[in-house]
Amino acid sequence: MQNTTSSGARVNGTRLWSRLMAMAKIGATAQGGCNRQALTEGDLEGRELFRRWAEAAACSVRVDAIGNLFAHRPGRNDTLPVVMTGSHLDTQPTGGKFDGVYGVLAGLEVIESLNDRSLTTTHPIEVAVWCNEEGCRFPAAMMGSAVWSGRMSLESAYALTDRDGRSVGQELERWGVKSSAVTRQRVKAAFEAHIEQGPVLEQRGKNIGIVTGVQHMSRHEAVVLGQEAHAGPTPMDLRRDPVRVLAEALPAMYAAAARHGRDARLTVAVIETRPASPNTVPGFLRFFVDLRHPDTAQYRSLREEVESLVSAAIAKHGLKGEIRCVWQAPGVVFDPGCVAAVRNAAAALECDAMEMVSGAGHDSVNVAAIAPTAMIFVPCAGGLSHNEAESATPADLERGANVLLQAMLSTAA
Ligand code: GLV
Ligand code: MN
Ligand code: MN
């Protein structure tokens, strides 16, 4: 017999897993991962699949002006602020099956489980699918939630371009995705379930992370101009080679990161030269530096040091260029009430939980600027994420979704 009390409500882990696997077929890669970069055909197909599932679960679905999608389950008093959950369906170019997708489908599973038991809540419930969380195709991570929260203007989001020069605005038009809606719904509280994307839960033998905040992070673009020249006849001392800057700045930046302790993160993942011909000294260099730290003072000093190291290397080699911050997300401390709701849910479900700060960026960073917010982490194998081999167990995913369900029920009552 089905339990009809809200505290006894549980998600259907089999349905959640089968939907994760169905979504993973869209944009599936040969190595078992997913490539559904924002506003590509795969991303659109994934969103449509979610829409069909949400409508079949009696939700109304709407899309806003930046392509965020919201599935709404009415509350007993539908004029009250919503209790929100959700995440993203877009992926990295070599992404996994769970990053973002889990938070969206765990949210849908909350709704399905309430439907299964004919349970209603006073507050409406919404599942958000935020547009372009990854920021890999269009260079601003957490874009949809940033626009929704008012932290980024609609115009600057529309103007972001991919490497082929296509803009977010053009792609939203081309796919017929966006609406003209710019009003933001009122939100009582928000919760996001996500795989941890790091090794801590697994290493400590825990199965739930109660996420108390997210660390500081920023992205910096360095551009250095040199002079194209022949790789053979041009003596080394007569070249204006921008790669010299990289050769000098890279070891200095890694040393700076090491000086800022084990919590510091520095990633140089995009390095481009032009014309990129093996026998031409490049005339142009561009690279990106991703910086993160949970401690405000350490983060600021790491940023300053990296910027001055790159500027000094440019000056030393007599080249023109600069490094500038192109994206940042200041760290967030989540709402104590929402964190407590997660903690209580985890305790009621007898989880082996620990409190932690997120190393990865999440849409919750932006949502937290508008409404009380917290997150729930589940372990992923080897802490691996942004990798086609990303994996998590059905049991851990089900447990996290049950924590989400109970935290949301206690808030939406
Ligand atoms: C989002 O995936 C991030 O870069 O943390
Ligand atoms: Mn994610
Ligand atoms: Mn990601």
Model description:
- This protein has twelve helices and 15 strands.
- Helices cover 35% and strands 23% of the residues.
- The two termini are 23 Å apart.
- Helix 3 packs across helix 12 (394-412), helix 8 (243-259) packs antiparallel against helix 9 and helix 10 (336-348) packs across helix 12.
- The chain has 413 residues and is an alpha/beta fold.
- The strands form three sheets. Strands 1, 2, 3, 4, 5, 6, 13, 14 and 15 form a nine-stranded mixed beta sheet that branches. A four-stranded antiparallel beta sheet has the order 9-11-7-12, covered by helices on one side. Strands 8-10 form a two-stranded antiparallel sheet.
- The protein has helices at residues 13-24, 41-56, 101-116, 143-149, 154-159, 168-174, 200-204, 243-259, 296-316, 336-348, 364-367, 394-412; strands at residues 60-63, 69-73, 82-87, 125-129, 187-195, 208-214, 216-225, 229-230, 265-274, 280-281, 284-293, 320-329, 332-333, 353-358, 373-378.
- The mean pLDDT is 96.
- The site of one manganese (II) ion has 4 residues, from loops.
Q: What's the structural blueprint in terms of helices and strands?
A:
Elements: H1 13-24, H2 41-56, E1 60-63, E2 69-73, E3 82-87, H3 101-116, E4 125-129, H4 143-149, H5 154-159, H6 168-174, E5 187-195, H7 200-204, E6 208-214, E7 216-225, E8 229-230, H8 243-259, E9 265-274, E10 280-281, E11 284-293, H9 296-316, E12 320-329, E13 332-333, H10 336-348, E14 353-358, H11 364-367, E15 373-378, H12 394-412
Parallel strand pairs: 3-4, 3-5, 5-15, 6-14
Antiparallel strand pairs: 1-2, 2-4, 6-13, 6-15, 7-11, 7-12, 8-10, 9-11
Helix pairs in contact: 1-3, 1-12, 3-12, 8-9, 10-12
The chain binds glyoxylic acid and manganese (II) ion (2 copies).
